[in-house]
Amino acid sequence: MDYKSGLIQDSNPMENLEKQLICPICLEMFTKPVVILPCQHNLCRKCANDVFQAANPYWSNRGGSISGGRFRCPSCRHEVIMDRHGVYGLQRNLLVENIIDIYKQECSSRPLQKGNHPMCKEHEDEKINIYCLTCEVPTCSMCKVFGAHKACEVAPLQNVFQGQKTELSNCISMLVAGNDRVQTIITQLEDSCRVTKENSHQVKEELSEKFDVLYAILDEKKSELLQRITREQEEKISFIEALIQQYREQLEKATKLVETAIQSMDEPGGAAFLMNAKPLIKAIVEASKGCHLGKTEQGFENMDYFTLDLEHIADTLRAIDFGSDEEEEEFIEAEGDEDEQEEEDLSGGEDGSIVEASKGCHLGKTEQGFENMDYFTLDLEHLADTLRAIDFGSDEEEEEFIEAEGDEDEQEEEDPSGGEDGRSTGRRQEEELQ
Q1: pLDDT, tens digit, for every residue of 53-88?
Q2: Does the record carry Zinc-finger as a key word (predicted)?
Q3: Closest Cα partner for 303 from 243, 233, 242, 393?
C-alpha cells in the first residue's frame, strides 16, 4: 500500500510542474525564448508577439522610430505597455528555459506510463490513433478497417492534432485581441456615462437658474403691485378720516350754535334778544351749509380696478417644454436600431465558440456627441419680459380714467358741492384738507 502511494506521490510533482510550464496562449509547453511580463507571467515570445500584433494591427518597427504599443496579459489582464522594440524589448526568463530543459530530460529518461492514452470505446484494446475527417472525431485503426468509419476519410492523428491546435491558438489570440477591444469600448462607454452625468448636471443647473430668475421676477412684481394696492388703501382711508374730522368739527360748531340759540330764546327782554338774534341767525344759516362739505360716492370703497388677468401667462407657463418632437423621434429611432443590432449579434453568438465570442466586440457603440444634453435648453427671456410687464388694467382704461378725472375737475369748478369719483375725489380733497 505504501509502495503504491509512493508511486502516486512521485508522479504528482512532475504533473504539477508541467502545468506550470504551459503557455496560456498556445496551451503547449513554453517554446524558447520565454519572455517574462511586468506582471511576472511568462509567455512564448512567438505567442506574445502574436497577441501584441493582434492588439496593435498598425504597429511597425521599421525605421526604429515608431512608438510602441500595448496589450493585456492573458493570465491576469494586466496592461503591458511596450516600447518601440515591441516584444523583443521584454526580458527573457532564463530560469524557466532551464527548468524546461531539465523537465524534458527527465521525461525522456522515464518509461512511458500505460493507461494515459485514450482507448477506443468500440475496440477496448485499441488506442485512438487516427482522426476521421468525415465524422470529425478521433478513432482507432480497427474502426477504419472493420468498423463504423470504414468508408470515411481519415488522417494521422498527429497531423490533425497540430492543425487544430494551431487553429485554437489563433482563435485564442483573436479572442484576447477582441477582449482588449471590448475593454477599450467598456472604458469609452464608462467615460460616456460619466460625461453624460456631468452634462446632465450642468443642464439642470442652467435650467434651475433660469427658473430662479422667473421666480425672482414674480416675487418682485408681486411686492410692487401689493404696495400699490396698499398706497391706494391708505389714500382712501386718509380721505375718509379727513371727512369724518370735518363733519365732527361742523357738528361741534352746530351744537354750540344750538345751545347759544336756546339761551337767546330764553332772554326776557326784546332789546337784548334783538341785539343777538340777527348775527345768530346768520351764523346758523352759514352752519347749515356745512353739511355739504363732501361725501364718498357709491362704490368708493371698491378696489376692483386692481385686478389681473394672468390666464394667458399661466397657459404659457404650462406650455414650457424642451426642443421639438422631431429631435425626440430621431433619438428613439436611433435607440431602436441599436437594440435590433444588439439582438442580432447576441443571437449569432449562442453556440459559445471562440470565433463567435470574438464577434461580440461589435455589439454596438455610441455615436459622436451622444453624451450631449444641449437639446434640453429653454429660451425663457421672452417669458421674463412678459412677467416684468404685468400691471393692473390697460393703457385704454388709464386714458379713460384720466379723461374722466378731467371732466370731474371741470364739474367741480361749476359745482363745488357736487360728487366726485373714488380715486380722484380722495386724492384731490385730501390735498385740500391738508
Answers
A1: 888 776 665 444 456 788 888 888 888 888 888 888
A2: yes
A3: 233
What whole-number distance in Å separates Cα of residue 305 and Cα of residue 303?
A: 6
Does residue 142 sit in the same domain as residue 250? Answer: no
The Cα 322–Cα 380 span in angstroms is 11
pLDDT at 219: 94
Residue 301 burial (C-beta neighbours within 10 Å; 0-12, 13-18, 19+): exposed
Query: How many residues are given for the chain?
Result: 434
CB under 8 Å to 4, separation ≥6 — which residues? none
Interatomic CA distance for residues 389 and 316, integer angstroms: 15
CA-to-CA distance for 52 and 184, rounded, in angstroms?
15
Please answer whether residues 122 and 137 qualify as being in contact, where contact means their C-beta atoms are separated by less than 8 angstroms. Answer: no
Quick one: what percent of the chain has pLDDT higher than 90? 11
pLDDT digits (tens, 9 = 90+) for 295-346: 778 888 888 888 888 888 899 899 888 865 555 555 555 555 655 555 455 4
Answer whether residue 386 shows pLDDT above 50: yes
Strands 79-81 and 70-72: antiparallel
Q: What is the pLDDT of residues 114-158, one digit of tens each?
A: 456 788 888 877 788 888 888 988 988 778 777 888 788 888 878
Residues 174 and 273 in one domain: yes
CATH number, residue 24: 3.30.40.10
Given this model, what pLDDT does residue 180 score?
83
The number of domains in the chain is: 3
Rounded distance between C-alpha atoms, residue 260 and residue 78, angstroms: 120
Q: What is the pLDDT of residue 174?
A: 85
For residue 268, tell me if it sits in a domain: yes
Question: What DSSP string describes 150-215?
Answer: TTS-EEEHHHHHHHHHHHHHHHHHHHHHHHHHHHHHHHHHHHHHHHHHHHHHHHHHHHHHHHHHHH
Residue 361: inside a domain, yes or no? Answer: no
Q: How far apart are CA 233 and CA 388, in angstroms?
A: 24
The verdict on 39 and 77 lying in the same domain is yes
How many Å apart are CA 236 and CA 429, to the nearest integer? 10
Which residues does residue 127 pair with via DSSP β-bridges, in sequence order?
A: 119
Instruction: Return d(Cα 172, Cα 395) in angstroms, integer.
Output: 84
* Residue range of the domain that includes 135: 128-152
* Mean pLDDT of the residues in the chain: 76
Cis (ω within 30 of 0) for the bond into 156? no
